Amino acid sequence: MPKEDGVILIDGQQVGSTQQCCHCGKHFMMIKGSGRLRGHCMKCNKITCGEIKCCACVPYEKQIENIERGLPANTV
Amino acid sequence: MPYYSVAEKSITNASNATIMNLYSAGGARSKVNNIILSSGATPDDQATIFEVVRTTVSGTGTAIVPEPLDPLSVVANAQAKHTLTVEPTEVSASNLLVVSLNQRATFSWLANPGAELKLVRTSDYGISIVPRTITSTYNIDCTIFFEE
């Protein structure tokens, strides 16, 4: 399990941790047996959320800058 | 890197009605590192799926001025609204965080340093906390902490 990027507290007790997709920035919980397929970017060497749009390597910071420049987020 | 808080209590929690919208005024880039959701209503078992999504146009609603955690900090660039009468324009498939909650639970999400939810610096772009499905309407309290 990679290092956590966020934690979830319910009533003050930590009940889970989240990972952040290195491409879209989404936070998600890794649950064994959930059947959700996640990915791993070999360039960023970090986990991805597994969405098709995040298969190509466009790092999170680059996507934010693309939007600020008026370009589609996934512009390489 | 000053920190700020936007908070509001007793916001009506209804399906697809944005609870809070935090958006950029076109200056510094804001980074959300803590979201707290709770309800002060009479305890009841109501289920809600909340989504944090990106928006490109802030809606129409009651403005909240971000409060700096350090009183000496400069005024925040980001602005916020709650109780929206016109919904912000959402970016499709832009979920940044999804959580299902019981009304009785006090929920808190904290990002580790470097893993915050970054707002796009473009003016009016931001993020919204939206309840997608809900079993019954109830009042909710929402707090967002961010840094710039």
Question: What does it look like?
Answer:
The complex is a heterodimer of chains A (76) and B (148). Chain A is 12% helix and 29% strand. In chain A, the strands form two sheets. A three-stranded antiparallel β-sheet of chain A has the order 1-2-3, with no helix packed on it. A two-stranded antiparallel ribbon of chain A has the order 4-5. By secondary structure, chain B is mostly beta strands. The chains are: A alpha+beta (76), B mainly beta (148). Chains A and B meet through strand 1 and helix 1 of A and strand 8, strand 9 and strand 10 of B.
Task: Work out the number of β strands of chain A.
Answer: 5
- What sort of overall outline of chain A do the alpha carbons produce when their principal axes are compared? globular
Count of helix runs of chain B: 0
- Measured distance between first and last alpha carbons of chain B: 6 Å
* Rg estimate of chain B, integer Å: 14 Å
Estimate the strand proportion of chain B.
Answer: over 45%
What is the oligomer described by this structure?
heterodimer
Q: Helices and strands of chain A, in N-to-C order?
A: EEEEEH
Distance between termini of chain A? Answer: 29 Å
Which descriptors would you attach to this protein?
heterodimer; A: 76 residues; alpha+beta; 1 helix; 5 strands; B: 148 residues; mainly beta; 6-stranded antiparallel β-sheet; 12 strands; globular
Q: What's the gist of this structure?
A:
The complex is a heterodimer of chains A (76) and B (148). With 76 residues, chain A is α+β, with helices and mostly antiparallel strands.
